[in-house]
């Protein structure tokens, strides 16, 4: 099959395996459906079995298939077992989208409860590190492994009351960039970040309750922009794709 083949053009990820965290709603759901429509078999990771089954129905309608993984990302040993289970079933992984995240408390740092801090750190940062440990060997077995981690503009700002979320997202950025540097000369794996900017999601509505969501881009629009970061022909690595400006940004970024 050549690059000019109409089937290849319409479904450029045919035969690939793509894992998405936070796959049952918002950005993760839109990414899962977009990757499925492009031909990928989607390994959908989410906490709620019912929501995963609804996603499965949508993926089937998109002409693809899915493996459903009910998993709370605070379950570190569960993440550790995931890589081995995927290797036994598929033998490799082609795409990893680390999307799952929580907003955390919107309060002064001095008033954040330890449990709130630990929960946000566990989901937003520690889970992604454990996913790197679990999935890196599988992604290296791919002919063109691609990893995309979802960050936030908050990672580059010191905005009052956003400390918990901002700190975890800043950590995600360093995590992804370090991973990209470590594999740059020994693997075909490409690792990048994406800054969604303001998107019409439940998390955005929680942070900005007075904002009109209809003025914001949809998760589906963002997912369409993320798709190229998952394709085999991607050359960039260790960079951040800024969706609001539709461009890659070099590090360090201005605040």
Describe this structure in words.
This protein has 255 residues and is of the alpha/beta class. It has helices at 6-10, 26-37, 49-61, 76-90, 114-140, 163-183, 202-207, 219-226; strands at residues 17-21, 41-46, 66-70, 95-98, 146-150, 190-195, 240-242, 247-249. The protein has one domain (6-248): NAD(P)-binding Rossmann-like Domain (Rossmann fold, 3-Layer(aba) Sandwich). Strands 3-2-1-4-5-6-7-8 form an 8-stranded mixed beta sheet, sandwiched between helices. α4 packs parallel to α5 (114-140).
What Rg, in angstroms, do the CA atoms define? 17 Å
Name given to the CATH architecture: 3-Layer(aba) Sandwich
Name the CATH class. Alpha Beta
Measured distance between first and last alpha carbons: 45 Å
Strand order of the largest sheet: 3-2-1-4-5-6-7-8
CATH fold topology: Rossmann fold
- The figure for the number of domains is 1
Family: Belongs to the short-chain dehydrogenases/reductases (SDR) family.
GO cellular component, one term: membrane
Pfam family, one: adh_short
GO molecular function, one term: oxidoreductase activity
């Amino acid at each position: 099959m050549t690059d000019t083949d109409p089937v290849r053009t319409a479904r450029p990820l045919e035969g690939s395996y793509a894992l998405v965290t936070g796959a049952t709603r918002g950005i993760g759901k839109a990414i899962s459906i977009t990757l499925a429509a492009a031909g990928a078999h989607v390994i959908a990771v989410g906490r709620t079995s019912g929501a995963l089954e609804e996603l499965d129905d949508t993926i089937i309608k998109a002409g693809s298939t899915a493996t459903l993984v009910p998993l709370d990302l605070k379950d570190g040993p569960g993440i550790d077992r995931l890589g081995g289970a995927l290797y036994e079933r598929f033998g490799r992984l082609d795409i990893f989208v680390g999307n799952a995240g929580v907003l955390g408390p919107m309060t002064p740092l001095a008033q954040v409860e330890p449990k709130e801090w630990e929960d946000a750190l566990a989901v937003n940062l520690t889970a992604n590190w454990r996913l790197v440990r679990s999935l890196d060997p599988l992604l290296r077995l791919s002919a063109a492994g691609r990893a995309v981690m979802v960050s936030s503009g908050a990672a580059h700002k010191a905005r009052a009351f956003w400390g918990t979320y901002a700190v975890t997202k800043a950590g995600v950025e360093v995590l992804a960039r370090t991973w990209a540097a470590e594999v740059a000369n020994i693997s075909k794996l490409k690792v990048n970040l994406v800054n969604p900017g303001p998107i019409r999601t439940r998390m955005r509505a929680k942070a900005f309750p007075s904002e009109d969501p209809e003025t914001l881009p949809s998760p589906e629009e963002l997912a369409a922009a993320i798709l190229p970061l998952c394709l085999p022909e991607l050359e960039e690595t260790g960079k951040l794709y800024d969706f609001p400006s539709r461009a890659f940004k070099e590090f360090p970024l201005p605040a």
